[in-house]
Amino acid sequence: MTPEPDGFDAPALSHTRAFLAAGRGQDGDAAGTANDSAVSGLRPYLLTSGRAEPVDQSLEIESQVLTTDLGATAYGRLSFEYREIVRLCEDTVSVAEVAAKLGLHIGVARVLVADLAALGYLVVQRPTFPVNQDLNLIERVIRGLEAIH
Amino acid sequence: MDLKPSTEPLRRTRRPPVPVKIVIAGGFGVGKTTAVSAISEIPPLSTEAAITTVAARVDATGEVPAKMTTTVALDFGCITIDEALKLYLFGTPGQDRFGFMWHDLSQGALGALVIVDARRINDCYPAVDYFEKVRLPFVVAVNMFHGELRHELAELRWALAIDAGIPLVTFDARSKLSVRDALLAVLRHTRSRIEGA
Q: Of A80, B31, B101, B110, which residue is the least packed, with the fewest Cβ within 10 Å?
């Protein structure tokens, strides 16, 4: 990822977006955030520092996200939006789950995940293409479903 | 502490599974979320996707003011196929004005399941049109809400105006095995399309 024009970089992470905490109460570690609907109209723009486009716009919502050791180590220095993601992704989840569980719009989740991945704090497994031409893979899914009883 | 991105090898060696997906489409209240719930290993989750400028423009011609932020719920669930492969099911509203989401969802999808309520079959037309257009293999599944079919499948096929090569099945969105079979119909259809290509 190329550096953001506004000078966004890793050391700035812990405070550039700290103002966001004000919109969501004092507890930056709050796990349950889905009910915070009062500011939801503004949040997509606040959370992405005015960027309307995801850093990696093509990041598929089924992409799998897992926190790295580096990300776990950096936890204490991250602003709470990033912290929540780093904590959630201790077990692998999809970008869609990040959005759903943290009460974020899909587009916002994409941006935040891409930010963290660019810093090496998350590892992202994207779908392989073209999956829909891959007979072996389709056979594997068929066998997996057939095993459901 | 070094806060910069590290090039050190990560101690964590496990890799996330590769995700694959099937799109679940159909009109409102047709049983998409029910179907996802029936088979998903996690309780179905719902998230919001902000409407894009394209969709906002569509809205501007309708009842929603152009500057109003509009969101649409996206329901999804997942099934672990094996330790390296995970299947996601994305349920998407089946209306024209939400068509912008279908591009994202269809991209790289293994196929689509179009759920139909036999009493309101026209609700599924936009989804059928879209998947035909982008050539995503799909199966039409009639949700047997009331346990019986009011029409013959042949009549329904005629009303849907779908190609004879497109599977038309009946299923019960509440039943795990029934949903499984409908998804298998999608995958087998995709497989036959690849083999026939």
A: A80
